[in-house]
Design goal:
mainly beta; about 50% strand; globular; 11 strands; seven-stranded mixed β-sheet; about 0% helix; single chain
């Protein structure tokens, strides 16, 4: 129904910047929220940022506030994550996610219906 493909990951020096992209296809008109999650080796998948495709609401994990920015381009069916002032602890596989329903929170990965394949971000010190 909905397909998501991430791109833009790679190796970056601590303090540097990286921009991740997520391209959506299929029944994208059914999407209510889109977000970014990340998972480091041996750790649980964690929330990073989210937005609504209508309106201007954005949400961020405390660990990335002031450094990361989530944005969208509805016409292009794209969602972005601008990562600035990156830290070694940002190293993880980053996943784009989408959900059809409002669940009262954007932070739970189980509330999302569609997922991309992930893109690796590695921050060197």
């Amino acid at each position: 129904q909905v397909q998501l493909v991430e791109s833009g990951g790679g190796l970056v020096q601590a303090g540097g910047s990286l921009r991740l992209s997520c391209a959506a296809s299929g029944r994208t008109s059914s999407i209510y929220n889109m977000g970014w999650f990340r998972q480091a080796p041996g750790k649980e998948r964690e929330f990073v940022a989210a937005l609504t495709l209508s309106g201007d609401s954005t949400y961020y994990a405390d660990s990335v506030k002031g450094r990361f920015t989530i944005s969208r381009d509805n016409a292009k069916k794209m969602v972005y994550l601008q990562m600035n002032s990156v830290k070694p602890e940002d190293t993880a596989v980053y996943y784009c996610a989408a959900r059809r329903y409002y669940a009262g929170t954007v932070y739970r990965d189980g509330d999302y219906d569609y997922w991309g394949q992930g893109t690796q971000v590695t921050v060197s010190s």
